[in-house]
């Protein structure tokens, strides 16, 4: 799945992370980096006043 498809299909930001970085970050590969990405994403979506949606982690 492409990261774009993950976001527009409702699979969520976590699936986008998995599509881009797979085992480098997901499934315990680098939980600190995943948390940092999620925190940044949540900050960015607040700027236009939108919600981050579900499935934020991979």
Task: Fill in the keyword field for this structure.
mainly alpha, 3 helices, 58 residues, single chain
Tell me what you see in this structure.
The chain is mostly helical. It has one domain. Helices cover 53% and strands 0% of the residues. The chain is built from three helices and no strands. The longest helix has 16 residues. The chain is flat, with a radius of gyration of 11 Å.
Give a brief outline of the structure.
With 58 residues, the protein is mainly α. The protein has three helices and no strands. Helices cover 53% and strands 0% of the residues.
Topology diagram in text:
Blueprint: H1 3-8, H2 13-21, H3 31-46
Poorly predicted runs are none
The radius of gyration computed from the alpha-carbon positions, rounded to a whole number of angstroms, is 11 Å
Query: Termini, distance in Å?
Result: 13 Å
Strand content: under 5%
Number of strand elements: 0
Q: Count up the helices.
A: 3
The helical percent reads 40-55%
The number of distinct structural domains comes to 1
Shape: flat
SSE arrangement, N to C: HHH
Report on the biggest sheet: none
Structural class: mainly alpha
Estimate the mean pLDDT confidence: 94
């Amino acid at each position: 799945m492409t990261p774009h498809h993950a976001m527009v299909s409702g699979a969520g930001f976590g699936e986008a992370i998995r599509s881009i970085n797979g085992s480098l970050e997901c499934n315990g590969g680098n939980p600190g980096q995943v948390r940092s990405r999620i925190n940044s994403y949540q900050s960015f979506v607040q700027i236009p006043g939108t919600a981050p949606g579900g499935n934020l982690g991979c």
